[in-house]
Structures are given as C-alpha cells and as structure tokens.
Amino acid sequence: MDKRAIGVFDSGVGGLTVLREIIEQMPFEDIIYFGDTARIPYGTKSSQTVIKYSQQNVRFLSQYDIKTIVVACNTASSIALKNLQESFDIPIIGVIDPGAKGAVQKTENNKIGVIGTTATVRSSAYQDRIREINPEISVIGTPCPLFVQIVEEGWEDSDVAELAAKKYLIELMDHEVDTLVLGCTHYPLLRYTLNKVLGNKVTLINPAYETAKALKEILTEKKMLRKSGETPVRRFFVSDAPEKFRRIGGNILNMEINNVDEVEIEKY
Amino acid sequence: MDKRAIGVFDSGVGGLTVLREIIEQMPFEDIIYFGDTARIPYGTKSSQTVIKYSQQNVRFLSQYDIKTIVVACNTASSIALKNLQESFDIPIIGVIDPGAKGAVQKTENNKIGVIGTTATVRSSAYQDRIREINPEISVIGTPCPLFVQIVEEGWEDSDVAELAAKKYLIELMDHEVDTLVLGCTHYPLLRYTLNKVLGNKVTLINPAYETAKALKEILTEKKMLRKSGETPVRRFFVSDAPEKFRRIGGNILNMEINNVDEVEIEKY
C-alpha cells in the first residue's frame, strides 16, 4: 500500500467530474487537486502554451508527496501528456487512452464520434488512439466549443443547448455513429440533451469514469491502492477566484470543499 | 502635433473593433496593439487578476514611444481603469465613460440597458457612470456570457444566437429600455440578431465608436492629433497564437495584419 496522495490537475472546475469518479471508486485516497482557473480555457490556446501551462501545473503538484498525477483535462491530455511523461519521473496518466478504450469496447458498428474543444479534436488524440487499437473503426471528430459556456451558464437542459447540439452533431448523425466520446469534462452534464438529440441508440462514453477505472486497476496491480484508512485528506488549489471554485466545485463534487488556496502558478 | 503612437490593449481580438473605429476616425496615427490571447477571457476572472493582467499590459505598451493608452476591453475598463490611471503617468482612457455618455445622450424615456460579460455587469461601472451623469435614469444590467462564444463560432446570425438573445434580454424588454449599451467588444457583431429580438425602437450604443470619438476630441483639444503624414505604422503583439490573430483579426479590421509578434506577457 502506498499512502502518498494522488495529484490531479485541470484547467478549472471541469476536472472535478474526473475527481468525483476517482473518489467514488477509490474513497480512501488522499488528493491534491489544482484547477488553473486564471488561465482557463485551454481548449482555444496553442499547443505550445498548453504544454507550458501543463508543465507548470505538474511542477506545482510535484512539490507534494504524491504517487501519481492524473491530467483531468481533455485538452492537456491530448496535447501535453507525452511531453509531461517524458519530462517528469512521476507516473502521469491522462483521460484519452481510457476514454478511447471504453469507446472501442462499446461500439458494435465500428463507427465512433468524438466531441470536445477545438484543440482536443484538432489534436486528433482520441481519433488516433482509437484507430491504433482497431484500425477498422472509422472515427469522426467535431469540436463543440459552445458546450462549455452552455454548461457554465446552467443551460444544459435548455432549448439553446438542444439547438446547438443539433447544429454540432448533424454530421456525426449522418455518419450513423453508435458510440460518442464526451471528450471534454463539462460534457457529461449535457447527457440528457445529447440523448434527446441523438436518440437512445448512441452510447455516450464518459472518459472521467473510464480514467478512474483505469487508475484503480493500475494502483491495484502495483499494490499502491489504499483500501482503507483514516479520513482521506483532500486539498484544493486554484490560480484564481477560490470562492467561486468552492461554490461551483462543491456542486460538481456534491460535497463541501473547504481547503481551497490560491496559487501564483506563473512562478512554477 | 504629437507623432508618438497610440497604445491599445484588449484581452484578445475583440479590441480590434475599437481599433477599427480609431483608424477610421484618426487614420494617420501610429498604433501599438496588444491582445492578451493567452489569458483571454477576462470576463470570468476575479478583479484582482484582471487588475494584475491590465498592469502587465500597460507596462508592456509603455516600453514604446506612445502618447496615450486605450483600454479597449470592457472588463478591464470596468475593473482596472482607475487603478491604472493612478499607477501610471501616461494618459489612459477606457470605453466605459464614452459608452455611458453616448447612451445618456440617446435615451428618451430614461431607461437604459447594459449588456456585457459577468465581470463587467457585476462591476456596475456602466450603471454607476450613467446614474452619475443623470440620476433620473434607471439602468438595468444583464450579463450575456454566451454571446462571445457565439460570435467566435461565427453563429451571430443563427437561431442559437436568437434564442440566447431572447433568454438574456427578456428582463430588459420587460423594463422597456429604449437604449442598450453593447458593453463587450464582440457584441456589435450581434447587431442584426439584437435588432431582430428587440425591435427597431431600441437604439444600440457601440462604445467602440464613442471611445474613438472621445479620443479624437481629446487629442484635437490638446493639439496632439496627427492630421496628415506618412503611411502610419501599426504594430501588433499577442501573448499566444499570432497566426490565429492574423487570420481572425484581419477579418475584424478588414485589412491585412502583417506585423504580429508573440510576447511573454507574464514577464512584465
């Protein structure tokens, strides 16, 4: 058993959907979470900048006594993961590989859709990984940049969300995908609207869930999982607006967030 | 006549709508423009962070031989202008005061609406300034955070834009405002949709136009205006993705942008 904490970072609150799955599947682990709320969103930025920011985030988390780092942001996972794994000694996992595997297992007609930020879809990380696992699968990616704002506005079940989803997903529907990867941490909150637009025949894949599952398997295999213990310590850091993080993040995690501190992330 | 350049900054490309008006009204001025594309958007960030970023932007521009700085960003003008004016010797003007004056001149029923980012509307900068000029005017502010993304998606004339506008503006319409301040640099591009939703009785105020007009008056009065001269030099700097800025910015300015350099703004 390895008592050290799990480090998690994201561009903001979105990664808490990944953390929620981690807590649900591994309730005894200590957690250090960093949300880069000052520099959100990553999805519209250049690769070079996403890599620079991700490195700073890992350097910040590495100060603490951690056993592994989860890149809970789809954009950072798509663009920076390889660079991070080469630059740091600590094991680092992202959401792409688990999400891709989950989709490949589910598809029956070998047609998978991927939605995410512009940067995630353009990076082709999900598409490449899926084709690597099974070259016979055809994958179509569509960026849906408005979805994050729609969720942050609390409009996920509104007619605006439905109209935007219809505009974004028409091409995927024409291609008759039977499986859709929700390649952005905010998108699982649009599940109801997506089901309404796509119908029940399309299976939605939530990489947050798949990532927590993969992490648990790795920690179990390496005998690093905490199976019981004292009340776990969960600490949160943000680069801006801790009060807002406490409020919105508490809703996503469905538990009170008490320990939020502000960090000058540019210094790392 | 003062041959020094005019410095302009914004959180990204949006401020180019202000620059466009400056160029149209003062075609002989040299320009140094900084777009903080790495840290966009400002509208969701804390006041403390918006002030810190704005100070760095002014320090960057101050390296050049400039006679004045225009804060072309509504959020930075709302939150940081006073602080900037107190911290730096160079004359700095924002978009709020000209926008507020323009609205007060136009209203006939003394009911004005203000739309903008969450930070701009919450700061109450437009509302306070309008009431300061005429305490009998009632002002209602409504944040419309989705509008920026809608414009950046190129959906400004779509049914999504119309539905979002109806949701956002219903309260303003109930209050029968006859004048609406477009308190975010992206919003003038939604003019067609806003007219469709609000009807022709509501006058839309574009602070970009009002700001350029005010600046021209100040420079004329102080005998600092360039009324003729050689081809003006216009230089552009961004903190991320210069290629994207060249492309999107060129469309907004309606002229080719050749001189774009990338800056590490965190160092200022």
List segments of chain A where confidence is low: pLDDT < 50 over at least 5 consecutive residues. Answer: none
Strand order of the largest sheet of chain A: 4-3-1-2-9-10
Number of helices of chain A: 11
Q: For the record, give the distance between the C-alpha atoms at the N and C termini of chain A, rounded to a whole number.
A: 30 Å
Structural class of chain A: alpha/beta
Overall structural domain count of chain A: 2
Order of helices and strands of chain A: EHEHEHEHEHHEHHEHEHEHE
Query: How many beta-strand elements of chain A?
Result: 10
Query: Quick one: overall form of chain A?
Result: globular
What does the largest sheet of chain A look like?
6 strands, parallel
Return the CATH topology of the largest domain in chain A. Rossmann fold
Strand content of chain A: 15-25%
Radius of gyration of chain A: 18 Å
Question: Biggest interface and which pair forms it?
Answer: A-B, 26 and 25 residues
Task: Just name the CATH architecture of the largest domain in chain A.
Answer: 3-Layer(aba) Sandwich
Oligomer: homodimer
- As a percent range, the share of helical residues of chain A equals 40-55%
Give an account of the 3D structure:
2 copies of one chain form a homodimer. Chain A is α/β, with parallel strands linked by helices and 268 residues long. Chain A has 2 domains: 150 residues, 3-Layer(aba) Sandwich (Rossmann fold), CATH 3.40.50; 111 residues, Rossmann fold (3-Layer(aba) Sandwich). Helix content of chain A is 46%, strand content 18%. Chain A contains 11 helices and 10 strands. In chain A, the strands form 2 sheets. In chain A, strands 4-3-1-2-9-10 form a 6-stranded parallel sheet, sandwiched between helices. The first copy, chain A, has a 4-stranded parallel sheet with strand order 6-5-7-8, sandwiched between helices. In chain A, strand 9, helix 11 and strand 10 form a beta-alpha-beta unit. In chain A, helix 4 crosses helix 6. The longest helix of chain A has 16 residues. Chain A is globular and about 50 Å long. Chain A starts with a strand and ends in a 6-residue tail after the last strand. The mean pLDDT of chain A is 96.
